[in-house]
Amino acid sequence: MPKKPNSARAVVILENLAKTFGDPGTNKPVLEDVDLKIAQGEFVALLGASGCGKSTLLNLIAGLEEPTAGSMEIPAEGVAFMFQDATLFPWLTARGNIELALKLRGVPQPERGQRADELLKLVHLQSSGDKRPHELSGGMRQRVALARSLAQDKHVLLMDEPFAALDAITRDLLHEELERIWRHTGRTIIFVTHNVREAVRLGQRVLLLSSRPGKVIREWRIDAEQKKPEQAAVLANEMTAALRQEISRHV
Ligand SMILES: Nc1ncnc2c1ncn2[C@@H]1O[C@H](COP(=O)(O)OP(=O)(O)O)[C@@H](O)[C@H]1O
Ligand SMILES: [Mg+2]
């Protein structure tokens, strides 16, 4: 029987994590007392208002920023990151962008082509590998970016509002794709969003971040039953109310 996420080993552990930009004597912390344990294979959605510190938290986990206080454990191999903008190299094809990530990871040349084809297939782009980014739709570009972040072959994948710029139908499709890929690859995913429906749709656990300072103030565990439309709508309303209350503290 598969282990429940809360009984699985924690792969990301944050304790009393804090971050202040600039002089801590004069500037308010962006994040304070962030305590978080994320289990192997878990899909966690981090939900919070714009500017509350979601990207800062992901950047700390990714090692792109240094914490001001607290401690952090992440896998020794590091983590993979997918941003909101695909930032693909425009002069490379979809396959070329993925092969570059494989090259940077040290995969030898003869294996790269086959591995890139497998990844293109995984994101349903097997027939578009030779297209360059400007020939692809926004949704297709994000699929390439997803394949490229999977090419890094790290167990933990951080995603910072990767579908925020897409239209609703494309986003729904990508939610299905991402869920399938998560199940297929067994990755641990930390997915940042300000979209309540997206958080309920994807997360096994949704964490609500407060603003100024950002810390985890609420948590919902969501099982398959609660993802059914009626229950999901109730949960989404509850989260929206909590998010609104949090935003209204600051206006
Ligand atoms: N490099 C930085 N230097 C100074 N302030 C920053 C920096 N990065 C983020 N901030 C500030 O930290 C706060 C949180 O930003 P961010 O983490 O981007 O929020 P979110 O991703 O939730 O929208 C904002 O007030 C932002 O202006
Ligand atoms: Mg952000």
From TrEMBL:
Keyword Repressor: no
UniProt GO MF annotations: ATP binding; ATP hydrolysis activity
Keyword Transport attached: yes
Keywords tagged on the record: ATP-binding, Nucleotide-binding, Transport
Domain ABC transporter: 12-238
PROSITE patterns the UniProt entry points to: ABC_TRANSPORTER_1 (PS00211), ABC_TRANSPORTER_2 (PS50893)
Entries under InterPro entries matching the protein: AAA+_ATPase, ABC_transporter-like_ATP-bd, ABC_transporter-like_CS, ABC_transporter_ATP-bind, P-loop_NTPase
TM ranges: none
Protein name, as recorded: Sulfate ABC transporter ATP-binding protein
